[in-house]
Design goal:
Elements: E1 2-6, H1 9-26, E2 31-34, H2 41-52, E3 62-65, E4 67-69, H3 80-92, E5 99-100, H4 109-122, E6 128-131, E7 152-156, H5 159-164, H6 166-169, E8 177-181, H7 183-188, E9 191-196, H8 202-209, E10 228-233
Parallel strand pairs: 1-10, 2-3, 2-6, 3-5, 6-9, 9-10
Antiparallel strand pairs: 4-8, 7-8
The structure holds fructose -6-phosphate.
Fructose -6-phosphate (F6R) binds at residues 35-39, 66-67, 80, 132-134, 138-140.
Length: 248
């Protein structure tokens, strides 16, 4: 496994941005899929900085969203589309015809899954996938023991995810379902960069990277993916022992 540990969140973010920029430079025109959530926000800032320095053209890529809370859209602060639009797509100047996002307010969840799945198919799959890891090990909205077949899937939200969601919305919303690219699509991504940051992620980082892979901890299944690269900061890597050769 390719695991890289950095001194702190800033270093992790700087290096993640360099990794993404280099990948995009080598694979222009690929389909990129970025997780929302708090972990990658600083990485997005660093990527935009690299673009302003002429080191990457972020508009050379196409973008598809990873997931969305079913029942909310851009108007709800904390929705994935709001976070991605305001922290990345807009400040990076990505043309709207290069972006396809889940609409959490669509009439039909089945049609919505198919709309995004066909966009991914048309691009020959995801080229670069950036993932965060939830407190319960979810990736996208693939929750523990919710490995449904399909390019895009809908999943009942776990209690942990509902509790954690307060950090995005500032209050508990009545959300029950997530819509997400499925594990079949994740597995097929050509490159996966997984970011795990912060003291509160140390336990789940251990379960992700050291314990035997199992569907109870979705992120642990990525151990099997030879194209997955894991970037952690020292706080998150605290329990990894000697599988990382960095003295934190
Ligand atoms: C967000 C997403 C989630 C988050 C995960 C970690 O689009 O798909 O899987 O990546 O919940 O969230 P943060 O980074 O806020 O800890």
């Amino acid at each position: 496994m390719d695991i890289r540990v950095f001194d702190n969140h800033d270093e992790l973010s700087r290096n993640a941005a360099i990794f993404i920029a280099e990948h995009m430079n080598q694979n222009p025109g690929g389909l990129t899929c970025f997780a929302a959530g708090n972990t990658p926000l600083r990485t997005f800032q660093e990527l935009i900085k690299l673009q302003s320095q002429g080191k990457v053209d972020l508009s050379s890529s196409y973008y598809v969203s990873l997931d969305e809370w079913w029942g909310i859209g851009y108007e709800t602060k904390g929705s994935c589309v709001q976070v991605m639009t305001d922290t990345f797509y807009k400040p990076a100047g990505i043309p709207s015809d290069r972006i396809k996002v889940f609409n959490g307010l669509a009439d039909s969840i089945e049609e919505e899954k198919e709309r995004i799945a066909s966009y991914i198919r048309a691009h020959g799959g995801i080229d670069l996938l950036l993932l965060g890891v939830g407190m319960n090990g979810h990736i996208g909205f693939i929750e523990p023991n919710q490995f449904k077949p399909g390019a895009c899937v809908d999943v009942p939200l776990s209690d942990v995810t509902k509790q954690v969601s307060v950090k995005y919305f500032g209050k508990q919303l009545n959300l029950q379902t997530g819509i997400t690219i499925g594990y079949d699509t994740i597995k097929a991504a050509k490159k996966i960069l997984v970011l795990i940051s912060g003291e509160e992620k140390a336990e789940i980082a251990k379960k992700t990277l050291i314990d035997a892979p199992c569907e109870e901890i979705p992120s642990s299944m990525l151990q099997k993916h030879e194209n997955a690269v894991f970037f952690l900061d020292c706080k998150a890597a605290r329990l990894l022992g000697n599988i990382v050769n960095k003295n934190c």
